[in-house]
Amino acid sequence: MAKNQQLTLSSKFYMKKIPLLLFAFFLISSLQAQNNYYFPGKKFNPNILTPDAFLGYSVGTQHTRYDRLVSYFEYLSQVSDRVKFQTTGRTYEYRPQLMVAFSSPANLANLENIRTRHLALVDPTAKMPDVQSMPVVMQLGYNVHGNEASGGEASILTAYYLAACEDFEVQNTLKEAVIFIEPVINPDGRDRFVNWVNMHKGMPPVADPNDREHNEVWPSGRVNHYWFDLNRDWFLAVHRESRNRLNFYHQWYPNVVTDHHEMGTNSTHFFEPSKQSAENPLVPSYVYRNLNDSFAKYFEEAMNQIGSLYYTKESFDNLYPGYGSSYPDIQGGIGFLFEQGSSRGHVQDSQNGLLTFSFAVRNQLVNAIATIKGGVAQRENLLKFQREFFDSAVSSAKKSAVKGYVVGSDQDETRNRALLNMLLLHRIEVYPLQSEVKQDGKIFKAGRAYYVPVAQPQYRLVQSVFEKPVTFADSIFYDASAWNLPLAYGLPHAELKSGTVPTGDKLTFDALNFQPKAFAQTKYAYLLSPEDFNTHMALYQLLKDGFSVKVGQKPFRIETDQGPKSFGYGTLLIPVQTQKVTSDSIFAKLKEIAANTGVQFHSVKTGYSSEGVDLGSNNFGTVKAPKVLMPIGAGTSQYEAGEVWYMLDNYVGMPITKVDMDQLGRVNLSDYDVLVMVNGQYPSDAKFLDKVKAWVEAGGTLVTFKSASEWVIKNQIAKGKIRELKEKDSTATKARIDYEKAADNAGARYTGGAIFSADLDTTNPLGFGYPDRKIALYRNSNTLLELAESPYNTVIKYAAAPLLNGYVHPKTLEKIANSAGLLISSRGRGNVIMFADNPNFRGTWLGTSKLFFNALFFGNKISAPQQGNQEH
Ligand SMILES: [Zn+2]
To answer: For residues 48 and 44, what is the distance between their CA atoms, to the nearest angstrom?
Structure first.
């Protein structure tokens, strides 16, 4: 196959340049080589170019660039009537997202009818269709982690097999199935990886794991453009890749979905069943026990046939519904996870011998084909089961003690809409309240709160969104154990167990276009109450354009164009006379911002408040647009750095300068107002520490998360004390535990991801815009901070019994109770703001991201209380 490695030009190109005879030789030899390794004994349509012939190299000897991969799918759709090329949207880097259909020519001609009939399976009110004549719908997904490239490569071979194989079995399969192939779920990440391994490939290749080819730089190809893990985003639906995919998903509700991954180089291959104790209790056991087991027989046979080692049952999580392999389980289908030992490059030494990329590709391929076989064999069962799944959703919901959930903030339409948008994307039925509902001491207002009944086809997803389990079959969490979304969005919510709720028509996407009330022009000042999540976006738009804005540190009540109104801590004031532009331009700008962001401005004609501080008070401080720098690169968390970047791009519209750790030395820190240090390892040499200390002293705001908060304390940049998780217990008897339990016990003490209750000082500038002192925090680390020595400097304190949702070891929980969640330590003219946790978790925790935005904009507004005295 070595000769084919040289051919990196497209087939069209060498058609012109290379004599036909020679071309034919390459074509035939490549076709034979490929088909012998990947498809022994199969007959293919000779008029369709093999991937090798099309690409100019043998699949597995090079990593295929995404654009070439897209071209091959396009090519197949042009030469085969079994293929329909379609896209669902584009990624952040404008790569098309593919969802290419494979089926018999007759089915493809009738695709829309097939889809409409299939949808009756997810609608309990529809007449049950005759499943005997219906094709099963399968969706094969590869390479959600961009650096797990064998899946993407296997997708090309799977496509070739479906488009060109002439065996009777394949032709029959295409009659009985509609198969969608999404060759790469994360195209931006894949190309980052592909470029890396191709540019470092030796000729001959280097198998030494130390070679640069096998060790990517930061950020890895695993993540998308914003450094997010898209295999957590099926449920959270933060990113456009996921949103496009979910839109497609709910047009088709596939019965079978695959998710092809890679794991460590020394591992073999994994297929489901997964670990039984990590199954989702909301999913009918029929899925795990019956359906999965019947497919596993096909995987087993396929792997045995090529002599590949594999394992099952020992690991991997099906509990969290946001993986590509678990979301289908909660939609009446079945998802399959495949994990293949990674060559992470073209060839690598491993404990199992030399691991080649083509070997990894072949394992993925045979299990994709085994899935298709299993799907066709189970076709009628799968179709019937899907309808039973949705029927049983509605019937079990009717027996539920909880009748529905009410959710919504009357002060923050932005967070309301963010949650509603996500619910609608999952086809959850939501209704606006038509009159006020009082529940659990909370008031939910008509027009600003919403009702989600449990009796609906998406009952199980409704439970996933709203329930707060704290007990689990397992104590080792591979990832999060809590994902209650009203807590993440920081929205008031309650369960309703009885009574009726007056609601309007079912909510649609169109109804989410919220516009604030009109406000009057004034020659005096405008006010903006800070509860809306888009407040910082509005603020930044004003500051960027040179408007002067002040922030109030005390509450007041004043006459506005909409009547007398009380304003809380952190209200923004835009005086008219001090601006550089005319009163008309100010009004026009504010109207534009209101339309863009949905925030509600109020106008006032007087600075005299009926209660509290007046508008000319010294308690109003001038706000400056912060210039923010974030050190990134090796040693820092790419997820947390990506979340900071994503949140600022998408919710503030403010640029952030990202600087590699090894470039930080040449940066003049005094050019920046704020430094954000996410979880990571930072240098402790005196030169670096002195630089940071001097910068804070000169007025800089240093914002730290998790281990970075520990770093500022250990290196005396900030005052504080770390609470140790491990107890120094000398009195304990020497317990004896079996060796086998060691890993489990260590894992159980670590907080993989759970939600806790805490108290927020809403008078502190970091707490501006929070109407309620009670706040939910997401915790996925073991950083524990003691309360500050100064009574004013603990902005957030964990509750005494803080667990709200998820798993935490009881000993760990004791340590979290009454610890600090957010601390301030002043140094010279600057402040260090220390988060014990990550406030921007997965771009979904709008409930705590506002604390982070406050730290950026108002972190320099916090001064030690004794310095506030005024001289006469
Ligand atoms: Zn993966």
So the answer is: 8
Question: Rounded to the nearest whole angstrom, what is the distance from the C-alpha of residue 261 to the centroid of ligand 1?
Answer: 4
CA–centroid distance, residue 360 to ligand 1 (Å): 14
681: CA distance to ligand 1 center in Å? 24
The SS3 call for residue 800 is strand
Read off the pLDDT of residues 251-294 as tens digits, 9 standing for 90 and up: 999 999 999 999 999 999 999 999 988 899 999 999 999 999 99
pLDDT in tens, 305-333: 999 999 999 989 899 999 999 999 999 99
Which of 35-39, 672-676, 742-746, 843-847 has the weakest average pLDDT? 742-746
Q: For residue 688, give the H/E element and its range.
A: helix 686-697
Q: CA-CA distance, 747 to 810, in Å (whole number)?
A: 13
Spatial separation of the C-alpha atoms in residues 777 and 760, rounded to whole Å: 11
Burial class (CB in 10 A: 0-12, 13-18, 19+), 314: exposed
Q: How many CA atoms lie within 13 A of 440 on its CB side?
A: 10
Which of the 8 DSSP states describes residue 189?
Answer: H
What is the Å distance from ligand 1's center to 252 Cα? 24
* Exposed e or buried b per residue across 463-473, where buried means at least 16 C-beta atoms within 10 angstroms of its C-beta: bbbbeeeeeee
Write out 579-613 in H/E/C secondary structure: CCCCHHHHHHHHHHHHHHHCCCEEEECCCCCCEEC
Cα distances from 688 to residues 143, 539, 667, 678, 790, in angstroms, run: 40, 33, 12, 17, 27
Q: DSSP secondary-structure letter at 239?
A: S
What is the spatial distance between Cα 518 and Cα 279, in angstroms, rounded to a whole number? Answer: 51
The residue type of 119 is L
- What distance in angstroms lies between residue 843's CA and the mean position of ligand 1's atoms? 20
Q: Of 499 and 564, which is predicted with more confidence? A: 564
Give the span between the Cα atoms of 872 and 867, in whole angstroms: 15
Burial of 475 (0-12, 13-18, 19+ CB in 10 A): middle
Look up residue 80 and give its DSSP letter.
Answer: -
Average pLDDT over residues 183-201: 98
CA of 229 to the centre of ligand 1 (A): 9
Quote the longest CA-to-CA distance of the chain. Answer: 98
The DSSP 8-state label assigned to residue 765 in this structure reads G
